[in-house]
Amino acid sequence: MIIKVYSICRKERLGKSQSFSYIPCYDAKGGGFLSEKKKGNTAAIVYDLAKPITDALGLVLWDVVFEKEGASWYLRIVIDRDGDDFVSTEDCSAVSRQLDPLLDEADPIEQSYYLEVMSPGLGRKLKRPEHFAPFIGAEVTVRLIRPVDGIRDFVGTLTAFADRTVFLQTASGPKQFAFTDCSFVKVNDDLNL
């Protein structure tokens, strides 16, 4: 069963129920989209379905995430706009309306799930190489999978992203981290709220 959420106040139930698992859409270690490597990858299949829609609407497909929270599964389509423009509920609704029949036809998800189309909002996570360039000079938090010298979180200014390496200027000096060693890199634009 799908519960499609494409605006703040409208939900629809669709689909059927069974089971599946979450695999991220982008392979940070090997590079490239997993849809090019594994045909059964849910998030990658949905990314490939959603990308032409967002491109045609003048939107940026920021991320596709298929994950379980509690007893429910969620397919989250995260969209953005270039520049300083904001994503509207109309944008979310348009993507949802156009993506829904494609999801029905491709049927990449066997179990019940909630479909959510949303903006990345404040505190967005930088997950793909193309996410980094617009945020060079911004304050970010880098959380490592394994601590370095007992420290897991590093806060500083993002100075570069090259060769799958995150470059950061911290209060204690410059740092660099392999992207594959990062649990996440998050823009700190939500700290003063």
Explain how this protein is built:
- With 193 residues, the chain is of the alpha+beta class.
- The protein has 2 domains: 2-118, 2-Layer Sandwich (GMP Synthetase, Chain A, domain 3); 129-187, SH3 type barrels (Roll).
- It is built from 3 helices and 10 strands.
- The protein has a 5-stranded mixed β-sheet. The chain has a 5-stranded antiparallel β-sheet with strand order 9-8-7-6-10, with no helix packed on it.
- A hairpin with a 2-residue loop joins β3 (60-69) and β4 (72-80).
- α1 packs across α2 (89-106).
- The longest helix is centred in the middle third of the chain and has 18 residues, at 89-106.
- It is globular and about 50 Å long.
- It starts with a strand and ends in a 6-residue tail after the last strand.
- The relative contact order is 0.15.
- Residues 1-40 have low confidence and may be disordered.
How do the helices and strands line up, and which of them pair or pack?
Blueprint: E1 2-7, E2 10-14, H1 42-56, E3 60-69, E4 72-80, H2 89-106, E5 113-118, H3 129-132, E6 139-148, E7 151-162, E8 165-170, E9 173-178, E10 182-187
Parallel strand pairs: 1-5, 4-5
Antiparallel strand pairs: 1-2, 3-4, 6-7, 6-10, 7-8, 8-9
Helix pairs in contact: 1-2
Any low-confidence stretches, pLDDT <50, length ≥5?
Answer: 1-40
How many helices in DSSP terms? Answer: 3
Widest sheet, order of strands: 2-1-5-4-3
Count of β-strands = 10
Classify the fold: give the CATH topology of the largest domain: GMP Synthetase, Chain A, domain 3
Summing up helix and strand content along with how strands pair, one would put the structural category as: alpha+beta
